[in-house]
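Collaborator request, handled under Task 6.
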Amino acid sequence: MNKLILGLIGILGILMLMVVFISAPISPVAYSPLAPPELSGVLKANKLLHKSELLAVGEIDGPEEVAVDSQGRVYGGTQDGKIMILTSDGKLDVFAETYGRPLGMQFDKNENLIVCDADKGLLSINPQGKITVLATSANNLPFKLTDALDISSDGIIYFTDASFKYGQSEYLYDLLESKAHGRLLSYNPDNGQIKVLLSDLYFANGVALSQQEDFLLVNETYRYRIVRYWLQGPKAGTQDIFIDNLPGFPDNISSNGKGTFWLALFTVRNDVLDTLHAFPFLKAQMSKLPKALWPKPEPYGLVLALNEQGQITQSLHDPSGEHLKEITSAREYGGYLYLGSLHNDRIGKYKLP
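Structure tokens returned to the collaborator:
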């Protein structure tokens, strides 16, 4: 028995030496987040998301963003590169296959499904399922993680490249490194022109236009905040902080066109991770470990409603995460919120009051 214990200690020691001396895949910097807000007041935990209808349970793998067409059919991307269509009678079919990882998606005025594919770039898919690549780079820098979008009334597509350094399978490296690799961009379908509106964003995620389209919001997931970029008025071309120190990781955000933004939070804040950010050496060591050994996100469902002044007006929770968890998108259609998830096997449909 003593030999066995000594052997195990020896193996553990060798593994520890390997962790210390093997080169890290990241070069992290220190970052000290603010203390997270308490879940009280408007943020007080509830079980409202338990009232959500669940669509395609066990049949769809990771519908990160959900879109609904003019016929009420629901679309969602999957982990293996498909875009599925759920008809009104509950039948699930393959609409298109990108052979990448479809994330954000939204229909334009011509009924083309515009898709941010993490691996393939900005895509347009016509009603017959034919795919056209719109953009894969900007300013000679290829997209590494094309993520989220919104479309203006004049057809301009605003979208994000969450990170120019790390791909979709490496997004946790971006989290630990704590450096700004994200960009906010625009694409003009009339002439194919691409513009970089903002760079140096900390994992540029969801995008949403205001009701009057005078400003644009973009989430910085790994800074727990939302940045506002002004499109019109005396502040046009400038940015400021719309809301800071959110209670979780902001993923996608959408506008209902009537002054409310719906913000999906992947999970609530992690005190261990927030503390770890102050220690680059420890983050470098963690990055060497298999991802299976990294801290797991708490299974929690959370969606916030915000007004155009940056105030939280409502929160929808599933504290257990048993019904809906790791929510990455919330978009309003026809009196319902459709809720997507990067890793879950279902789509939520929450009836609004």
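The cover message to the collaborator said: "The mean pLDDT is 94. The chain has four helices and 26 strands. Please let us know whether this matches your experimental observations."
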